[in-house]
């Protein structure tokens, strides 16, 4: 039994790649020596969970007879939930729903500590799905539709800068999440709720039918109201 506690969070990106490679090599060697070996790897960072699950599933697929041995859990409020970090589509739908609930002050699984990372993940997934580019292009694309001087564009620039600054775009279909060390932690609770709303307003502006595919019509109508409120701030 091998237990590894948060092996990558403190490393910069270049060193993370090396540690991922090292962990893959060692896990592969241990399984090759004894297929009955077990690993418990703990992390508070979604991108680490995503990458490690992908690596471990790949190792077990190539080395072990038991192909369904990887079991991912998510700890929230002292309760463990089943999860699958590499299932990009289901994660995307769940994140969208929870971001909506957070912005609407509903019962969301997201908290003030996790909302920033979750918004970045959704923005990355959306921009990758629709434009095959990173989320840094979204503000510009909104400007092309709304106008560079519109109040909606200004708010999006303000909040998205805070959410995306210093974050590296991966642009993959099954997206790796960003690190959680981000400037949105300097936002107030109300500003974080506004950021959640604006994330969905961006999708509304750029591809409303995409939004309709994931939300009920009354929720889409509510997101339209959020956009209208932004527009009224400039009058």
Task: Please tell me about this protein's structure.
The chain has 235 residues and is mainly α. 57% of the residues lie in helices and 8% in strands. The protein has helices at 13-33, 46-63, 88-103, 115-131, 138-146, 151-164, 189-206, 208-212, 217-233, and strands spanning 2-5, 39-42, 72-76, 79-83. Strands 1-2 form a two-stranded parallel sheet. A two-stranded antiparallel ribbon has the order 3-4. α1 runs parallel beside α2 (46-63). The protein is elongated, with a radius of gyration of 19 Å. The relative contact order is 0.11. Residues 165-182 have low confidence and may be disordered.
Notable traits:
8% strand; two-stranded antiparallel sheet; mainly alpha; 235 residues; 9 helices
Summarize the structure.
The chain has 235 residues and is mostly helical.
What class would the helix/strand composition place it in? mainly alpha
DSSP helical segment count: 9
Dominant shape? elongated
| Count of discrete domains | 2
- Describe the main β-sheet briefly: 2 strands, parallel
Provide the gyration radius in Å.
19 Å
- Poorly predicted ranges: 165-182
Q: In what order do the strands lie side by side in the largest sheet?
A: 1-2
Order of helices and strands: EHEHEEHHHHHHH
Q: Mean of the pLDDT scores?
A: 78
Percent in strands: 5-15%
Number of strands: 4
Helix content estimate = 55-70%
Q: Tell me the distance between the termini.
A: 63 Å
